[in-house]
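Q: I'm building a small set of examples for a reading group on sequence design. Run inverse folding on the following structure and report the sequence directly after it, with nothing in between.
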């Protein structure tokens, strides 16, 4: 499925009217997809730019590391996490791939393992390519929503845009309609904290809203640490996006292998992350 640029003048004009019409959306999508690269860049400048330092280009061989699942080479290229080059490199974009960042490439490849490491290290979940697409939008284009798309939502990605949701809703695919329902909801796919529930043992703990049940505005959730599955009202859920200091888990890279460390509670996870920061200032996931 092809999608229109979320920042194109055509789409912004349609959204300002309050209603989105499928025929007009498809026409706008066709206009954008038929543009050459120079025209796409011009269109994207109509929207807000996001991402790393544009002077830092993502080398082709580093982008290809995602395809090979070679996290060690990527981390070596990033360098010392305390250096000024680190932040620019983690969000660097490849001029030969429509200004795709590493998170975009992860989305294309469905590589959630490297995406987790990048987000844990502070990569921008909403970095944009030349066409204004975020990694979340790329997951929808690459049919990788169930891996990298859901991951992006947990880490606070902005919505994919009403036009994208409208196109998904009009699909003949049950999976795409399900995804549209999730994206249209307030908390679908998000990491949330349970609040005001009758079970006091749930309050303050986190979960992931796996599915939206629109009839009663409820969510089917999985508790983060106990793995208990529940149906909760939206009134008992508050967004609590994953952050590098509050990830809920910790991905480590040691001796050529990535492992995911689980914790009994968020407090235990936060203490672990803080202990690393208080040590040498470099998370184990950056060691190659």
């Amino acid at each position: 499925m092809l999608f229109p640029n979320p920042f194109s003048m055509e789409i912004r004009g349609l959204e300002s009217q309050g209603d989105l019409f499928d025929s007009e959306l498809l026409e706008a999508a066709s206009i954008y997809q038929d543009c050459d690269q120079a025209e796409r860049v011009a269109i994207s400048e109509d929207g807000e730019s996001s991402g790393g330092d544009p002077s830092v280009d993502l080398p082709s061989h580093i982008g290809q590391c995602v395809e090979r699942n070679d996290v060690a080479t990527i981390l070596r290229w990033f360098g010392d996490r305390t250096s000024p080059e680190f932040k620019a490199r983690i969000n660097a974009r490849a001029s030969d791939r429509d200004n795709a960042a590493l998170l975009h490439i992860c989305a294309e490849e469905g590589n959630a393992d490297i995406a987790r490491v990048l987000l844990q290290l502070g990569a921008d979940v909403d970095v944009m390519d030349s066409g204004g697409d975020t990694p979340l939008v790329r997951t929808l284009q690459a049919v990788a929503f169930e891996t990298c798309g859901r991951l992006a939502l947990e880490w606070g990605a902005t919505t994919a845009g009403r036009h994208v949701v409208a196109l998904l809703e009009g699909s003949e695919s049950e999976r795409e309609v399900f995804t549209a329902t999730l994206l249209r909801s307030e908390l679908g796919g998000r990491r949330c904290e349970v609040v005001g529930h009758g079970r006091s043992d749930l309050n303050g703990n986190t979960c992931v809203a796996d599915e939206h049940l629109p009839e009663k505005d409820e969510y089917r959730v999985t508790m983060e640490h106990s793995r208990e599955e529940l149906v909760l009202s939206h009134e008992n859920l508050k967004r609590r996006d994953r952050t590098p200091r509050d990830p809920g888990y910790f991905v480590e890279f040691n001796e050529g292998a990535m492992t995911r460390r689980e914790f009994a509670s968020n407090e235990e996870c936060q203490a672990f992350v803080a202990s690393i920061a208080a040590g040498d200032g470099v998370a184990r996931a950056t060691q190659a």
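The beta strands are 93-94, 100-101, 191-194, 206-213, 218-223, 229-233, 237-239, 250-254, 257-261.
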